[in-house]
Specification:
Blueprint lengths: L1 H4 L9 E3 L6 H6 L4 E3 L5 H8 L5 E2 L7 H9 L4 E2 L2 H8 L1 H10 L13 H7 L2
Parallel strand pairs: 1-2, 3-4
Length: about 120
Amino acid sequence: MMALEAPRLNLSMKFLDPSGATSPAALVVGGENVIEGKLNDPEKLRELSQNCDVMTIEIEHVGVDTLAKLEDEGVNVQPSSKVVGIIQDKLTQKVRLTTCRRAFRVTPKRVNSRDLDLYHC
């Protein structure tokens, strides 16, 4: 979605996608602007961050530890690695949303002992 709007705003973009040059983003920005690789591959995330003003994340299935290291090195990651880490765990996300200063209405959660056992593994 960002790839469609970026040209209108005079922004150039590059992407990390397991499909590489055959990804949907490549159809919009060209295959040369898509890095082929897994979203949790530290080397590929580092490559993506090179020469970027802002590194944005559209999906939470990404290497949070690498994002945190990149932030420590001065890369502007949005949303932050801390936020991505929270949303990777849906129980943590739901608890966070319901207990934050401006609590959000969310679907009631039911946690059974089996869920907690798995959560604390």
